[in-house]
Amino acid sequence: MDLQQRPPFETGQGVSATASPVAVRLSGLDITFHIGDQRYKAVTGIDLAVSAGEFVSVVGPTGCGKSTLLNAAAGLLTPSAGKVEIFGKPLSGLNARAGYLFQADALMPWKTALQNVAVALEPMGVPAAEANERAREWLGRVGLRAFVDRYPHMLSGGQRKRVALAQMLIRNPEILLMDEPFGPLDAQTRQIMGNLLLDLWSKDRKALIFVTHDLEEAIALSDRVVVMSAGPAAGIVADYKVPLPRPRDIAEIRLEKAFHEIHRDIWASLKVEVQKAYAMGEGKELVEGSNR
Amino acid sequence: MNRLKLLALQMLVMIVCLGIWHVVTVYPLFGETKTIQFFFSTPIDVLARTFKQLTGSDIYYHLGITLTETVLAFVIGSAAGILFGFTFARNDLLAAVFDPYIKAANALPRVVLAPIFALWFGLGIWSKVALGFTLVFFIVFFNVYQGVREVSPTVLANARMLGMNGRQLFRHVYWPSALTWMFSSLHTSVGFALVGAVVGEYLGSSAGLGYKIHEAESVFDVTGVFAGMLILAIFVIAIDSVVTLVEKRLLVWRPGQSSTTTT
Question: What letter does residue A152 receive in the DSSP assignment?
Fold first, then answer.
């Protein structure tokens, strides 16, 4: 039997790498959309590096191109200028080493929770029986053991996100991309999902880029928070480290003094951009969360 | 409103209608009953004839013919509709080039094709299958086309991010989506297959339910026409409930079973 070889850059456990490799590097990234005859420059001059094992949140005003950035890293969008490098290699086509958690419902509505998760293994050539077995196990890990045979419409918003999370993680991608995944959920469910995410992530620390418009969520979850300016032609205006200890509890960490200090700092730069976005958005449609 | 009351009211409508029909045709209120019965028959005669036909064996031969034509028209029409729907939805140039012709063909009242089909395929079942085919094909074609086109971009992007290749995308995303749309028009397309068969038989054949009705009509046997219509109605309801059963099984994943309209 021919076992699949592990990529050489993956340092084994116990090997103390001096510095984690850069999982995602965006350099000089420009993305322009063509809508009819009009051209809309969404983001410009983006430089961002995310190391393996790093949890980076991207915050910014609505419509600033946060999702655009993520889509470029996923290979769903081709940048007009600049480079996307994945573990040092230029990205062409879809990013096969990344998993993507969408803001909108992305599950196949005609498949049960189990089928939705198991199907993620099919492209990797896993036999159906084994795929089902592993999918069952993953659904258990996200707390849906009793719901494996439900169709998406029979699940709540939070449960659907759990299925989507299992569907993404079962493939064991080296990079996780999340586009306001908990945006449509209510506040309590968001906290529960946040804790679940941290719990799952901390087991094998993948590089994670988390796009959100919720600054508190960003700080509570991440190692780094990147602030983007108001669009069009948005760029990165600030990059903060979050020196809060792990493991964290999303609900409790918000009460700590250190959290408030970081929040105050980041909000100072984010506020300017949010105000700019609203000033520009006056008279224009400005729908929260519609920037897919 | 509870079920019993509803059922009672529904029965009442039938009894009132049949009652009026009976009174008007049996009692000389609007002239001689013989003349009126020639044109309208009487409900008791119609029911008696229907019962006699349904207990006889002859009618089942004709029903069998009509059913064969309906099933063939539906199967062949759906297969062609799915094939062309997929091809056109995945190929923009093809869709654009053929767009005016498909619209023109769909706008044509298909009944006018019946004589041509009789000429081409003879008076046997195949001219009726051809007529039903032209009706079913377009419904399935447009629905499959729509189904493939309207796959949620998020579901598609997600499937691609999961690493699916073209064949897997087809199997897990495009195909189920297209089938959903097709099934949602199942009542309509099955109904049209039946319309094609019966109209074809009516216009020229030697067997089938349409033939039976035409036969009765050509000898001014109004009772026979009404009995034929009643049997046809029972037949349609039977087929429709089978379709509903199939639909329920296939679309189990859909929120709030939305029923489609019958033609």
Answer: G
The nearest CA of chain A is from the CA of B246 a distance in Å of: 16
Same domain (yes/no): A259, A198: yes
B255 and chain A: CB distance < 8 Å anywhere?
yes
Which strand (E) or helix (H) includes residue A246?
none
Write out chain B residues lying below 8 Å of A120, CB-based: 162
* Tokens standing for residue A126: 């896993």
The CATH number for A273's domain is: 3.40.50.300
B258 touches chain A (CB under 8 A): no
Q: Does A241 touch chain B (CB under 8 A)?
A: no
pLDDT string in tens for chain B (263-residue length): 689 999 999 999 999 999 999 999 988 888 888 888 898 999 999 999 999 999 988 999 999 999 999 999 999 999 999 999 999 998 889 999 999 999 998 888 888 888 899 999 988 899 999 999 999 999 999 999 988 988 999 999 999 999 999 999 999 999 988 888 888 888 889 999 999 999 999 988 889 999 999 999 999 999 999 999 999 999 989 998 998 888 888 888 877 644 443 33
Q: How many CB atoms lie within 10 A of CB A166?
A: 27
Of A154, A172, A190, which marks where a domain is finished? A172
Return d(Cα A13, Cα A43) in angstroms, integer. Answer: 38
Q: Do B168 and A167 touch (CB under 8 A)?
A: no
**In terms of CA atoms, which chain A residue is nearest residue B167?**
A123
Rg (CA), chain B: 23
Determine the residue of chain A that is closest to B164 in CA distance: A123
Instruction: Show the domain range for A65.
Output: 22-97+176-281
d(CA B136, CA A146): 42
Q: Is A33 within 8 Å of chain B by CB?
A: no
Contacts of A74 in chain B (CB under 8 A): 161
Verify whether the Cβ–Cβ distance B157 to A119 is below 8 Å. no
Topology of domain B37-250 in CATH is MetI-like fold (1.10.3720)
Is 0.85 exceeded by the ipTM? Answer: no
Judge: A94–B165 Cβ closer than 8 Å, yes or no.
Answer: no
Distance (Å, whole) CA B263 – CA B260: 10
Same structural domain, A163 and A209: no
User: End-to-end alpha-carbon separation of chain A, Å?
Assistant: 43
DSSP for A150-196, written as a single string:
--GGGS-HHHHHHHHHHHHHTT--SEEEEESTTTTS-HHHHHHHHHH
B contact test, residue of A95, A103, A110 with most B CBs within 10 A = A110
Sheet holding A38-51, edge to edge: A38-51, A22-35, A81-86, A89-90
B154 neighbors B130 (Cβ within 8 angstroms):
no
A106 closest CB neighbour out of B155, B164, B180: B155
Q: What is chain A's Cα-based Rg?
A: 19
CA distance A264 to chain B (A): 35
Cβ of residue B248 closer than 8 Å to a chain A Cβ: no
| End residue of a domain, out of A145, A172, A199 | A172
Q: Give CA–CA dist A105/A95, Å, rounded.
A: 21
